Please model this.
Amino acid sequence: MGDFMNQPIVWLEWTGLYMSPWKLIGLTGATMFGGRWLVQFVASRKHGKPVIPRLFWYMSLLGSAMTLSYFLFSQKQDAVGVIQNLFPSFTAAYSLYLDIRHRGWHRDRATH
Model:
């Protein structure tokens, strides 16, 4: 499976993009990890104060996990990328745990 995951995705070639499934996973994770700041910005703007919505932690955790898997399992295998994404994964998981523990699974959207 490792070889398949490092080969270019055939159905993307018509677009001029030559990327492997691992590259796509890594780019998606990086986009998600960066995009969480847009989610935080919109929520803070809406409330008129700094707010970190639960979606921020989900995007942090999933984005970190995806980029971490890219650096661990693709041909890239870069220790810098692993370290850079390992610690945010733990922080996001713990923050998500605290948010769920403090506010419950179905928190009221009106109170942040």
